[in-house]
Prior knowledge:
This protein is α/β, with parallel strands linked by helices. The protein has helices at about 25-30, 45-60, 75, 95-100, 115-125, 165-170, 180-190, 200-220, 230-240, 245-250, 260-275; strands spanning about 5-10, 35-40, 60-65, 80-85, 85-90, 105, 130, 140, 145-150, 175. The protein folds into 2 domains: about 5-175, 3-Layer(aba) Sandwich (Rossmann fold), CATH 3.40.50; about 180-275.
Amino acid sequence: METPVASKLQDSQEIIYLDWNNALDTMEKAHRSGLFVLIIGPKGTGKTTLVRRFASQMKKELDSVNFSLRTRESHLVGSRTLEKGQINFVEGVLVKSMKAGTLLYLDELNAAEADVLLRLDEALDDRRQLVLKEAEGQVIRAADDWFVVATINPLSHVGTKELPPQLLSRFPVRMRLEYPPEQIELDIVRRHVAVEEAMVKDIKHAIQLAKNLRDAAAVEELYYSPSLRETIAFAKMLNTGMPARKVAEVVYANAYDQWGQVEYQKVMDMITSIFGDS
């Protein structure tokens, strides 16, 4: 069943991920131990890329659900359909993943509604099974190599809420994924963008700016915390010949204009202090 929140992630190209905190090894050990993994961290720290890289490394098919207020039980377990006078049951991504033993990626799990979390809890307990009330009580048992990785954002993010304790206990391996150190962030940029030596100073300035903005957002002085994507975008725009200060304005500062002139000016002042007036 195709839904806006469920997808099968497949890549023919190599997935670029710089494993600066040995996260892949932790995930491999959890998989080997039959333990599900929870990754905790802000947006833009590479959580999805990490999961995709792990699936590729383990040669496991990857199914994904991105949770929001629009995610329903039917997206996970499936629903009845009427076609040519026949009532059929179309399986959802959770059921398909359990049966096939894929890696199930539950992205932004703490944005899901309570009824959805309750249904997940049933599937994730030690029995690894799900009773389909939608299909005459059919019992779905997960394949032995079924593996689940979930991510959650900090509660400061809009739309997030605390995970129920019983669901949290289903993920006994918990990993924190923060923004990388500045030198590692530069290395990540180099893996995505052809960086000439003349650009390095400006990219380092952009990384410093991003760090300052993240620190300000962490103490609620600013509304938005820029991700690694912005740093990569900065390098790509710099490659076009645009002046570094102007790139910083279009990549970083303009995003803050939606919160008003005061917010925007704070960021412009930071840009001036780092890149100068021109």
